User: What shape does this take?
Amino acid sequence: MAKTALITGASRGIGAAIALRLAQDGFQIAINCLDEKNRDEQGLAVREECQKKGVSAECFIADVSSHEQCKGMVEQVKEHFGSLDVLINNAGITADGLMVRMKEEQYDKVIAVNQKSVFNMMKFAGAVMMRQRQGRIVNISSVAGVYGNAGQINYSASKAAIIGMTKTAAKELGPRGITVNAIAPGFIKSDMTDVLPEELKQKILTQIPLGIFGEIEDIANTAAFLCSESARYITGQVLVVSGGLMM
Ligand code: NAP
Assistant: This one.
């Protein structure tokens, strides 16, 4: 029976690239979209691209910062596909600003979407995987979580927490045959980084030893590896995929 992968925030960017890459590897794909608008405008196109690769794919609506909505989504995915074998916690946002000027809501929102979502999803999907006695979880962190980044106290906190959560979940779920790893991307070309000022982009580029920005497929390929049989003995690790930025 084909295995099922659920990818959060899969309507565009890195999440959509991971969905397509895992579809290529034969997984049934559950595409998480934030809301109906997001599904209709972007998610359905990702679904069609996955289906073109010969696998089943469906969109599931949930705001991953909501505990209840995550619970409902995991139940729906299990009901629809019959199993849940891979979870990719990819959904994320930024709301940058210097610490002394940052508003409380700005901090709380990023923590809720980037960090609490990982607890929500690992809790409910992890329970399903424990019953199946196998599974793979990949959490998308960031170099900002490993090394810090001025102007991103909220984002860095959320992404650093994901690393601690990854290691904790790896210890709790390992005995049931479930691996849990994190990927820490550097600068990857997507809507999230497109909005940065050109001057800042050029400055960052000078700090990347490989001399180029990453593509969304670079992260998708790493996620696919961590979900493959080749990675069966890797758990609790953080793979930095950054062209050498911050090492
Ligand atoms: P992106 O293009 O902005 O895409 C983010 C995705 O997350 C969108 O599909 C978005 O949906 C979804 N999302 C946001 N809030 C959500 C919520 N509450 N519930 C469900 N889905 C939600 O970003 P990206 O560059 O692909 O980034 C993907 C992940 O990689 C993020 O966790 C990010 O922090 C991490 N990352 C990215 C980079 C980079 O350089 N790009 C570097 C390090 C880490 P909408 O379309 O509705 O907004």
